[in-house]
Amino acid sequence: MIYENSTTILSVQGLHASINGTEILKGMDLTVKSGEIHAIMGLNGSGKSTFAKVLAGHSAYEVTAGSVQFEGKNLLELPPEERARAGVFLAFQYPIEIPGVANTQFLRLAYNTVQTQRGREELDPLEFDDFVREKMKLLDMKPDFLDRSVNEGFSGGEKKRNEILQMALLEPKLSILDETDSGLDIDALKIVANGVNQLTNKNNATILVTHYQRLLDYIVPDYVHVMQAGRIVMTGGKELALELETRGYDWISTNKHSIAGEVA
Amino acid sequence: MSEIASNDYLECLLKSWSIKPTESQSWLNQLRSQAIDRVSAQKLPTKRDEEWRFTDISSLTHLPYRPSQSECALQASDIEHLYLNEAENSLVFVDGHYSPELSKIVDQAALVIGNLPEFLSTHSATLECHLGQYATFENNVFSALNTAFLRDAALILVPKNVSVTRPIHLLFIATQQEVTSYPRCLLIGETGSNVTIIEDYVALQDATYITNSVTEISLAANAHARHIRVQRENTHAFHFANCAVSLAHASHYQSASISLGSHISRYNLDVRLLDEAAECIIDGLTLISDRQLADTHTCIDHVKPSGTSHQQHKCIVDDSAHAVFNGKIIVRPHAQRTNSSQSSRNLLLSSAAQIDTKPQLEIFADDVKCAHGATVGQLEQEEIFYLESRGLSELAARNLLTYAFGAEIISRIPVTSLRQQLEQAVLNQTQGK
Amino acid sequence: MSAVLQSLVNQPYKHGFVTEIESDIAPKGLNEDTIRLISAKKNEPEWLLSFRLKAYQKWLTMTEPDWQNVQYPKIDFQAISYYSAPKPKKKLASMDEVDPELLRTFEKLGVPMHERAALAGVAVDVIFDSVSVATTYKQKLAEVGIIFCSISEAVHNHPELIQKYLGSVVPVGDNYFAALNSAVFTDGSFCFIPKGVKCPMDLSTYFRINTESSGQFERTLIVAEEGASVSYLEGCTAPKFDTNQLHAAVVELIALDDADIKYSTVQNWYAGDENGVGGIYNFVTKRGLAKGRNSRISWTQVETGSAITWKYPSCILRGDNSVGEFYSVAVTNNYQQADTGTKMIHLGKNTRSTIVSKGISAGHSNSSYRGLVRIAPTADGARNYSQCDSMLIGDQCGAHTFPYIQVRNNSAKVEHEASTSKIGEDQLFYFSQRGIDAEEAVSMIINGFCKDVFQQLPMEFAVEATKLLSFKLEGSVG
Fold first, then answer.
1. Could you report the per-residue pLDDT of C257-271, keeping only the tens digit for each?
2. What's the total number of domains in chain A?
3. Tens of pLDDT along B355-402?
4. Does A212 reside within a domain?
């Protein structure tokens, strides 16, 4: 939701990034304020997932120009774990499997690390167990999932729920959901969307990276940005997503920037 | 077996070598003489050699095996039942000697196909590059012997971008007793070519003899080859075979080797993935009974990155037979993104049957996916019970399950008539009880 | 990734210091006189001397094995001193009388004996070089009839037991290094659990090699009578020397009907430096005989040290329904080499064995699993399950698997599975995106990888093993 007097959480200016010498991001500009939900849409290869990974600090990508300010700090000079501790959360498009490491163990370590950073008390295994089970109800998850190895043998839907559970635990300032809707059937999609909706408030912000409009039926964005060839070419309100759904991405090429300019 | 006996044996074999090097190709004469040197420098392996730990071949030395004679009394009608319907091209070798009368060649225009000596003058340079270059004999006395005796050989060269639609049948028939024959095959698949060969060993007599064969296969970039190998020698035979395969960039080798015959058999298959993105699929089935011993040693060597290999080897062992499987997978340094799987599944049908299996991984690169597994056991009691509960007798249930165990490999052979013959062979074996 | 990994790995060896204690060292070299000297020094009975001499004669006829997947320069057996004993000023009656220098050594090792003994209820038989200098809790154990003492003591106090069992599982001529050990062993532990007794505490020995170029040849013998059970812990550390030291121990376990022996090892001998200089050659023969019906022998090992490790703790499953287990974690880094595994010899009916082996290789090291599962014709209904997983960290190291499966009985069922994995960049990024740094991520992944083995260790050993692994691999992931 757009609030008056909200503070700027993320400010991206003229961001260029490449992988193995190939430039993917070619001048991204984006400002996200507290309370807002932004959707970034675009075809495969438009650079939207790259943008998500660059914000999280993936080492495979090299930032060649531009700046990223996160709550007034230069995000680009922080290693990935510092960004996470500062409140940047990426829900992975393909959550990684970690055989042998129990989910509960992983979640607790991540939770306690971030808690310590925020000057709060760590939870011991028993306290954490109560805490995490409460959060799991939000996402309609089975308890046995805590004892399984991280993402190993999880279905696509379980993996995505696990991502949102982590988001619920870590209480990030900025959540970036990378294609969170892919691989979900409609029931699972509703559960995940409901989880995300409950976690958004006027102090945090969310960026949804998605190819399809259907997620946006359940998580209503304040802004919709369309990416093409490494930059945002069009920005609008939630109705832009519907427009895209009916007219297709080709329509963008001919109407570039026609609605742009509403966002600072 | 004493070393002296073994060396005498090899020396006798060499002395019996009566073929004089008459070819004008000096490289071939040189290859043979190098091989002779290597025979002299080596000993017949014993059970003390790690590679021959379970296979005792000392009984070889008790019989003086002459080289086979080249005269051939067979008529095409004698071997009518051995031809395969699907194959238009058949090269027939009797006791290791090429028989032009029994062979059928139709693709003379599109391919280079026939007996090696016919092509020595026309394709000398190409042959020199390939012959004896893959099946090394430095430390392999059987390869060395075969190379020393090298004369006739099945030669197939599939030119660039030629796709041979029907399988080529290489038929090796044993007719003489107490002789050694030295079959040899060379398949060269040029860039983008595609071929299926069937290497088939049969006997038309019941006495003892030795087959010592060497097959070399070289596939250039993007070449595809399917290699079906059927060893159905008689049960008094000794069968020693070495097959070496060299794979270039994104080439694809698929093999199925079926071992049914021989008193003692040993098959070495070495596949080297020498360039990126090469692929191989290797299936094996050993089905033996009585006092047969069948030993399969395979080595899949991933030299370059992004290679794929999948191997499935099955043994069904009955009576006092003994099956040996040693499957080595090597992933060399820097052969990253290799994906390799291997499974060794073994079924023991009687209390005296024996199995030794050793699936072996040697990995020197970190970004790889390798898995292997081995099982030894009987038929699952649960499965037998399930079939019994559907009205089958216990025997019928066992036969069916044993058949199904072997048929999984056979069903992947892309030549219908051969598949049927093999299915029948498995059926005979499983229902012989 | 390798940059972070590399920076984490190269931790200096924490236990590298030499204790200045006056030692009584035999001249270097091996011949019959050396053996007679050892025997005389230890005031041994005639039968033991002839046991040693028989082994020595056997050893002379044997050649050093070369089939294992390790490389090392030839050992000069004449350059080794075969006896080295600290000279205690007087007979020791209690821990308080132990040389304080020695106690400090153990403190540096992180083994506060009295504390450990008192707090954890562990009886520690301390082996310093080759002579047992202190045995705690002996009294308490004696009350239930358990004998826990040094082998030398047992030779004098319980000669009938030693004569009966010594060499009964590992014959004097079993292999090259076992023969050598049988000829020259200086001390070790003896443990006897009589019929029906469950040992009330975990028994523990801490081994440490101190004197430079003294081979350590200790000998351990554990006998559990009908229905008895014991859990035995062995920990090993050694100071740093540039030369390589030989450690050729023999461990024999015997379990009678319904008896249960669990033997756990954490081995952290000096592994040599980052260039592969120095370090222990650890050539050990460990074998358990599950002699009785329903008996069980379980080996658990965490092998992190030594320049070369060459050992195959084995089980001979002779009794019907007997059980053999082998749980192993082997970690190699720098230029370490490990060739380790087990042998499960199934002789009795319905015998069962389980093998879980986890190998982790980093740096330029090589780690091999070599295992034999043999099902004899008599072993009706035998079962084996083996799982051998390897993890590679970096692309300069190697992991090898050599499983030998020999089945001579068709009612047996044998299953073997193996896989390789790595610590991937993607995994580390996932961790870091959740705020967890690389070091912690690696330690978590590795502990997860080794979980099945660590679960088998007694609590304090598991904690120690976890720490050890983290140290060991610090800097190799990144």
1. 999 999 998 887 777
2. 1
3. 999 988 888 888 888 888 899 988 887 788 777 777 788 888 888 888
4. yes
Q: Are B58 and B1 in contact (CB under 8 A)?
A: yes
C287: nearest Cα among C259, C337, C324: C324
Say how many CB pairs under 8 Å bridge A and C. Answer: 74
Instruction: Centre a 10 Å sphere on the Cβ of residue C300 and count the other Cβ atoms it contains.
Output: 27
Q: Show Cβ contacts of residue C76 under 8 Å, excluding neighbours closer than 6 positions.
A: none
Q: Cα–chain-centroid distance for residue B358?
A: 19
Give ipTM to 2 decimals. Answer: 0.83
Q: Which two tokens stand for residue B281?
A: 């699929």
Q: What is the crossing angle of helices C46-60 and C176-184, to 10°?
A: 150
Supply φ then ψ for residue B199, to 5 degrees.
Answer: -105, 115
Task: Detail the DSSP E strand segments found in B154-247.
Answer: 154-158, 168-174, 179-181, 184-189, 194-203, 210-219, 224-232, 238-247
The one-letter amino acid at C387: Q
**What number of residues does chain A have?**
264
| Residue of chain B minimizing CA distance to C401 | B361
Give me the count of residues in chain B: 433
Interface of C with B (CB under 8 A): 67, 375, 377, 390, 392-420, 422, 424
Q: Is C337 left (phi over 0), alpha (psi -120 to 50) or beta?
A: beta
Query: Going by DSSP bridges, is the β-strand pair A223-228/B154-158 parallel, antiparallel, or unpaired?
Result: unpaired
Q: Of A224-228, C258-262, C271-275, which gets the smallest average pLDDT?
A: C271-275
Q: What is the pLDDT of residue C213?
A: 43
Q: The CATH number of the domain where A197 resides is what?
A: 3.40.50.300
* Residue B407: its H or E element: helix B394-410
Give Rg (Cα) of chain C: 22
Query: Crossing angle of helices B394-410/B381-389, nearest 10°?
Result: 120
* Domain containing residue A247: 8-98+172-258
The residue extents of the domains of chain B are 3-275, 381-433
Order of strands across the sheet that contains A73-74: A22-33, A8-19, A61-70, A73-74
d(CA B282, CA B404): 19
Evaluate whether A181 touches A95 at the Cβ level (below 8 Å): no
Q: C173 exposed, middle or buried (CB, 10 Å; 0-12, 13-18, 19+)?
A: middle
Beta bridge partners of residue B186, listed in sequence order: B155, B216
- Coil, helix or strand at residue B431: helix
H helices within A87-170, ranges in order? Answer: 103-117, 125-138, 156-170
Confidence of residue C133 (pLDDT cuts 50, 70, 90): very low
pLDDT digits (tens, 9 = 90+) for C347-356: 999 999 999 9
Kindly list the residues from chain A whose CB atom is less than 8 angstroms away from the CB atom of residue C427: 96, 98
Of the residues B366, B369, B378, the best mutation for testing chain C's interface (the one with the most C CB atoms within 10 Å of its CB) is B366
C-alpha C155 chain-centroid distance: 23
Q: Give the whole-number percent of chain C exceeding pLDDT 70.
A: 77
Q: What is the least distance, in Å, from the CA of A255 to any CA of chain C?
A: 37
- Residues B367, C424: C-beta atoms closer than 8 Å: yes
Chosen for mutation from C329, C430, C446, C447 (greatest number of chain A CBs closer than 10 Å) is: C430
Residue C188 has pLDDT above 80, yes or no: yes
Q: How close C114 gets to chain B, by Cα (Å)?
A: 45
How far is the C-alpha of C344 from the C-alpha of B101, rounded, in Å? 58
In a domain, A91, yes or no: yes
Cα separation values, A43 from B221, C28, C309, Å: 35, 78, 56
Within-domain flag for A187: yes
Whether residue A215 is contained in a domain is answered as: yes
Q: Please count the other Cβ atoms lying within 10 Å of the Cβ belonging to residue B350.
A: 15
Whether residue C405 and residue B377 make contact (CB cut-off 8 A), yes or no, is no
